[in-house]
User: Fold these one by one.
Assistant:
Number 1:
Amino acid sequence: MRHRIVGELMTPGVVSVGPDTPFKEIAQLLAGNDITSVPVIDDQDRPLGVVSEADLLRHEAAGEDPNGLLPKPRLSARDRDRSEATTARGLMTSPAVCARPEWTVVEAARVMEQRHFKRLLVVDEAGRLIGVVSRSDLLRVFLRHDQAIREEIRHEVVGRVLGLSPDQLDVKVADGMVTLSGTLQHRSVAHALIQLAKGVDGVIAVVDQLGYRFDDTPAAARSGLAP
C-alpha cells in the first residue's frame, strides 16, 4: 500500500524572511501574499522560527489603551521583550516545528493537532527549508475519486497484501465511505481487511458487512469456539 506523503502535498517556494527583517516589512509580506505567518531562516535556509500575525499583534496588545479604559496587560519578561521587538529575530516564535517530506499525512496531521498548528515547515535531510504543508494540503487526500479508492482496496489490500481473490468480496465506495461484504474463511482475515481498508488514503469510514466461516481469534480460542 502506498500513502501520499508530505513531499507530494506541500507547497514549495515559501515566502521567508531573515532574522534582521524589520517589523513593517514582515507586515507588508503577510498582507501582500495573503498569508498568516512567515518562516525566519538563516543564511543557509535553515528555519530559526516563525513570525505570525499573532506575534505582530502582540505589539499592539501590549500598548496603552488610547481611551484609557483598559489596564495595561501584565506580561512576562519574554513576552514584554517580544512586544517591543522591531525585527524578526525578536518577534518570532522559536524553535520552528518542522516536518520531513517523507512523512505520511497521518504523521503531519498528528503534529498539527498536538501543537495546534495550521501548517508546518518542511525541511530536507540537511534541515533546509523546502516547502510548507497546511491543513488544507493534507485534506486533499480526501478528494480521491471513489473508483481509485475501490481499485486500491481490491487489488492492493485484498489481492497483494492479503493474497485473496478480489472477486470473492464486494467493495463499494461512495463519497469515501467504504462498504465491504462477502464471506471469508477466517475472522482474523476479516479484521485485518477492515483495518487495512481504513488506512487507505481518502477513506473516511468502513462499514463492515463481512462474514466468516471460522472464528480463529484469541478470544474464540480461549472460549473453545475456534476450530
Note: Residues 3 and 199 are 9 Å apart (CA to CA).
Number 2:
Amino acid sequence: MRRDQDIAVWAQANLRTLDGGRAVVTGGGSGIGLAVSRGLAALGAHVVIADRDAAAGEAAAGAINALGGDGSASFRAVDLAEPEAVSTCAAALGDAPVDILVNNAGILPPLRRRTTARGDELAFAISVLGHFALTASLLPALGAAHAPRVVW
C-alpha cells in the first residue's frame, strides 16, 4: 500500500466523515500540509490546497483526485508573505462555507535574515501576519459553516 493510501485508511478508520464539507489547507502542496489534505479528502471533504508553489499544489490536487473516493481537491495560489495575494485568494474562495481552515504554511528558519517587500521578517510574515490576514478574510465563510474549525 502506498503512503497516501495509508493516510486515507487511517483517517477513514479513526475520524468522522466530512461529507462534502470544504477545507482550506495552506502549504498543502507538500509535507505536513499535503498529508493533512490527503486525510481530509479521504474523509469526504473538498480540500482547497492554498500554496505559493503552483506546480506542487496542482500535483497534490491531481494526486488526491486520482485516489477517488468522496473527497476532492483543487489548487489556489497564495503567497502568504504578500498581503495582496492573501486578499486575492480569500476573495476567490468567496463566502461559501469553509468548515476547516488549516494554517500550516511556513518556511524553514533561514540562515540569514530575510524580509518581505514591506520590510517584515519573512518567516513572521508567513507564519503569523499572512495566516492572520487569511483567517480574518475568511471569517464570513467560516461563519457560514455549521461548526467551523481553525487549526493553526
Note: The radius of gyration is 15 Å.
Number 3:
Amino acid sequence: MNTVSSTRYLPGQAAITTPVSWRASAASFARRLAMFASGLLLPLLLLTIWQHAVDERWLAEQILPPPSLVWQSLAELWSSGELASHLGISLSRFGWSLLIGGSSGLLLGVMMGISRSARAYLYPGFSLLSQFPVVGWIPLLIIFAGIGEALKISAISIAVVVPVAVNTYKGIANIPRVLLEVAKVYRFNGLQVVGRVVLPAASASIFNGLRQGVMQAWLSLVFVELLASSEGIGYLMVWGRQLLQLDIVVVAMIVIGAVGLLMDRVLGLLESRLQGWRRAAY
C-alpha cells in the first residue's frame, strides 16, 4: 500500500501514528490542476471570440488586428530588444517609486498609529490629500519637478503612499490592548514595543497595504507614461497608436497585464509564507 506514516502528539497521550495515503496528495494536485484549468477558460473564450470576429470581418484589420499578427509583433519586439528595453525602464521607475512611496507610507502610518500627537496633526490633512487622484497631482508636480523622471517617480510614489499608510495605521490601531500590556510587564522600551509587538501584530494589514500599493504603483506607472514619457511600456502603447499599429498597442496591453498578474502572484506567495500561521476559511 502506498502510504506513509506521520506522527502527531496529543496532550497527555502517547504518539499516535496516522497513515497518509499518496492518493490524498494526488487528489490535492488534481484539484489544483482543475482550478488552474478553470482559470484558463475565460482567456480561451475571449481568444476564440477575437479570432471569430477577425474571420467574420466584424471590424477592419486596422482596428482589430488578428491574434497571429499580435503574436508576430510580440516576437519581433522581443527579438529586437525593444520590448525588453521599454519594460526595463518601466520596472526601474516602478522600483524606485515603490521604495520611496512604500517607506514613506510605512513611516507615516507607524507615526500616526503609535503617537496620538502625530495622529492629531497629520491624520486630518492626510485624509484630505489622499482623496486626490494621481492625475490631480500632475499639474502641480510639473511646476515643481518638470517633465522628467522626477515627475513620474513623484506621481507614482504618491499612489503608493496612501494605501500603505492607511493600512499600516489601521493595523496598528486595531492591535489588541492586551499585547501592549504584556509589553509593559516585560518592560519593553519604545523600540522594542514597535519591533516586537506593534509591527508583528499589524503585519497582515501592513502587507495588505503593500500589496495594494504595488498594484496602484503599476497602474499609475502606465497612466503617467501614457501622459508624459518618451520611453517605457506606456509610451509603447502611445507609439503604436500614433502609427495606427494597434497590434503594438495590444502587445503592450498583454505585457502590462502579464507583469501585473505576476506581481500579484509573487506577493500572494510571499504573504502565504510570511503569514503561514493564518488559515483561510475557504
Note: The longest strand covers residues 3-8.
